[in-house]
Backbone:
């Protein structure tokens, strides 16, 4: 990382350099670090992490292990393309570090009732979650990875930090089906085979274990279609959107209502099935 006191992030820079002002001066980073390599698949590692996750669906660290083993291989190219766009540079230069912003509930609670920020705080507080906690879980399996300070790493961090935002925007909860639907939704947002592998595996396990009339498979397939229709959420100005009404944000980003998922929850209520206890230790 290159930092200089003073200076101007608007000055002429090389084609592979981005800059922004910080409290220490102007920070300059390569868009793509020269040591960055295209990620590769590791199917053995993916299966190892998945086997642990099946036994305990609350092991979010193992979910990250699967995703890292079955990565979005073109993330570097997509990140670079976004960062050099006008919107990408604007977000990079002006938006606060997302975990700090998202964990500042005192600030977010000043935004209107019914806003995206209000819904986000309600969700995170009800679930006992924090953005910082998600980083800790991700770091369990990523502690040995070398972090390269570049624009791609900034983009990767946003991919991680917008996960819980997705639950709020899409309407999919943290129940078992809701998590599978988020994974399906994510594939066209950030096309890692890990998302489809985890989502399909979890959905088919539900179908095999559960006798129900709930439209489980239709909910999963609808989530995949919804993700394809929606603007890429990692590339949105999250700070600007937080103050807007939640439904307005959904319209802006073209996020459809998850009708089959909601129908599945209603069916399970009538069948006396707990949607939070369908896989993992609770179902053993």
Residues:
């Amino acid at each position: 990382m290159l930092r200089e006191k003073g200076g101007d992030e608007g000055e002429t820079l090389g084609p592979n350099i981005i800059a922004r002002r910080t409290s220490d001066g102007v920070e300059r980073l390569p868009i793509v670090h020269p040591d960055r390599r295209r990620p590769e698949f590791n199917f053995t590692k993916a299966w190892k992490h998945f086997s642990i996750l099946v036994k305990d669906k609350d092991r979010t660290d193992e979910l990250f292990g699967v995703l890292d083993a079955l990565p979005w291989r073109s993330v570097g190219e997509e990140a670079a393309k976004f960062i050099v766009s006008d919107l990408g540079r604007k977000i990079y230069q002006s938006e606060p570090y997302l975990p700090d912003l998202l964990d500042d509930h005192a600030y977010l609670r000043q935004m209107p009732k019914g806003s995206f920020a209000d819904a986000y705080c309600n969700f995170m507080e009800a679930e006992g979650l924090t953005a910082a906690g998600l980083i800790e879980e991700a770091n369990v399996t990523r502690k040995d990875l070398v972090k390269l300070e570049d624009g791609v790493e900034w983009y990767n961090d946003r991919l991680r930090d917008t996960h819980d935002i997705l639950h709020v925007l899409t309407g999919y909860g943290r129940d078992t089906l809701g998590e599978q639907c988020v994974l399906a939704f994510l594939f066209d947002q950030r096309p890692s085979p890990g998302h489809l592998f985890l989502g399909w595996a979890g959905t088919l396990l539900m179908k095999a274990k559960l006798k129900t009339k709930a439209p489980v498979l239709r909910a999963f397939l609808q989530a995949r279609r919804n993700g394809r229709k929606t603007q890429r959420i990692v590339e949105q100005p999250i700070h600007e959107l937080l103050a807007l009404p939640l439904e307005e944000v959904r319209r802006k980003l073209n996020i459809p209502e998850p009708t089959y998922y909601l129908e599945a929850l209603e069916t399970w209520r009538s069948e006396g099935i707990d949607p939070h206890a369908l896989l993992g230790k609770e179902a053993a």
